[in-house]
Amino acid sequence: MTAAISAIVTTVRRGQRYTEANRALAARTAEMLGIPNVPRGNDSLEELRAAYGADAVLVARRGLLTLAAAEGELFFHPGMAHLRIKNLLRGHGDHLVSALGITAGMRILDCTLGTGADAIIESFAAGDTGSVTALESNPLIAAVIADGLAHALGDNYEMHAAMRRITVHCTDALAYLRAQDTDSYDAVYFDPMFRRPLHESAGMNALRILADMRALTDETIAEARRVARCRVVMKERRESTEFARLGFAVIAGGRYSRVAYGVMEQ
Ligand SMILES: C[S@@+](CC[C@H](N)C(=O)[O-])C[C@H]1O[C@@H](n2cnc3c(N)ncnc32)[C@H](O)[C@@H]1O
Questions:
Q1: CATH code (residue 20)
Q2: Is residue 1 part of a domain?
Q3: Which residues, judged by CB distance below 6 Å to any ligand atom, belong to the binding site of ligand 1?
C-alpha cells in the first residue's frame, strides 16, 4: 500500500442550499475512512490542516467530495470521457475499448480506478447489460472518485448512466484478484502509474501525491489471466520496458500516441 497520508474531513464555510447534504457527506466520509469530521467554522483549509496536523483535507462542497493538500486538489472530473463517448457514439472507436475488446454485456474489471475516466468509457462500452468493477488501493482517491461517480452529474445522459453503473472497491488489485473465481470477468485492465511520468499530464499532479506507485508484478498478471476469460490489458508509455518485463507481446493503440496498450489474449 502507499505511504499513509493523514486526512480530516469538513464542509465548505458557508452552506447555501447544500448545507445538509454537505454535513451528511462529511459525516458519512469520516465514518467510512475512520478520520475526524471537523467543524469548518471560519478557518481556511490551511489553518485546519495545521491545527489538526493533517496532510490533506477532504471538503464536502455542493454535495461532492474534493480533497485539498499542499501539493494540489483532487476532485472528480471525467476529463476526456465526454469526447471519447461522443467518438464512440459516432462510430469512431476508442483505443482502450478496442484493446479490451469490449462489447455490450461484458464484465470488466478495472484494477486501477484513478480519476475514473477510463472506467466511464469501459462502462459506456459494456452498456447497461454489462458491468464495470473498479479497484483503487488509495482510500482517499477511492472516496473522492467513487463519490463523484455516484453523485456528480454526467455531461450527457450516456455518461451519467455509465458513471452510475460503476462499482468501486477500495482494495489492492492483487488481493482482490486472488479472491475471484477463474473466468469471473471478461477483461481485466491495468493502468498503473507510469514508471516515468509523461510531462504533459499536469492534471495528474494531485493524483500523483496520493497514488499507489508500485509496479505490477508477475503474480498480479498471472492472477489477472486466471480471472479474465478473454483479455488482460495494460496501459504504459509506448516505449516502456514494462511490456516486455510482464510478458505483453502484442502492443495496440494509436500509431502516433505516446501511450500504448499491451494485450494478452486468453
Ligand atoms: C494512472 S492511475 C489510473 C488512471 C485511470 N485509468 C484513469 O482513467 O484516470 C493509477 C491508479 O491506480 C491506483 N493503483 C496503483 N496500483 C494499484 C493496485 N495495485 N491496486 C489498486 N489500485 C492501484 C493508483 O493509486 C492510481 O490511482
A1: 3.40.50.10480
A2: no
A3: 111-112, 114-118, 135-138, 141, 172-173, 191-193, 207, 211-212, 214
